[in-house]
Amino acid sequence: MLVNMNDILLPAKAGGYGVGFFNAVNAEMARAVIETAEELKAPVMVGTAEVLLPAMELERVAEYLIPMAQKASVPVCVHYDHGLTFERCMQALRLGFTSVMYDCSTASYEENASNIAEMVKICHAMGVTVEGELGHVGDNSGAGKLENPSDYFTKPDTAVDFVNRTGVDSLAVAVGNAHGDYAFPPKLDFERIDAISKMTNIPLVLHGGSGLSDLDFQTAVKLGVSKVNIFTDIDKAGKRGIEAGIRAGARSMFELIPYEVAEMKKVVEEKISLFGSRGKA
Q1: At 27, which helix (H) or strand (E)?
Q2: 9, 145, 223, 253: least buried by Cβ within 10 Å?
Q3: What is the pTM of this model?
Q4: 159-182: per-residue pLDDT in tens?
Q5: Exposed, middle or buried, 173 (CB in 10 Å: 0-12/13-18/19+)?
Q6: What are the residue numbers of the active site?
């Protein structure tokens, strides 16, 4: 069933478990996520991000994701992640996404708060939920890499003000996490997660989940992270599946698809079980 983020994350926060958000840039990824969630009777979030649109345009993503979510036997939130522009977020709303992240984290604090408050007003009038980001989660490499990531960590006192001013439904925090592959094991600031969670009392979001240890995930969820974003791990799993299919003698894309989906489903099952959302639908 198609639901919004609050329908999934508020029970997760109350129940002390986490929910995976998986980017799905093609129908095979979407199948892997939703089929596995149904098999495990787990709520799940699925969608795409603005940076991924070159792989599959937003309108095309909506064409396969919305119907799949509607037909699912478990709660599925279709979320537009890291929306960088107001116009793209509005497009996601028109296409039927039930949740959006408007990422203004690189703007000034005042501009970030003002933009998110406006987005919340629009989305809440439509029954759509909003995720904001405070601090800034950079990348592990490339143009988004931060020289001193701790300079951009989320401050608990500021988070309280941000939540009160915007009415945002969930908050992405910068606590030592980063997008993409980690060159070295990350060191998450668990005390910061705990403080922000207790002071804001809303679901927290951990971006850059691929590559963290099982203990990192379990501790973060225990301290208040309700949504964990995964893309790199499932993306690499799809590639492994294709390679396995080629080794097994598959001679066409048609023959490769089952291998691709099966390998991605392993990752989705692992994360759902690790976050504690198995059987929570």
Answers
A1: helix 27-40
A2: 253
A3: 0.90
A4: 999 999 999 999 999 887 664 454
A5: buried
A6: 81
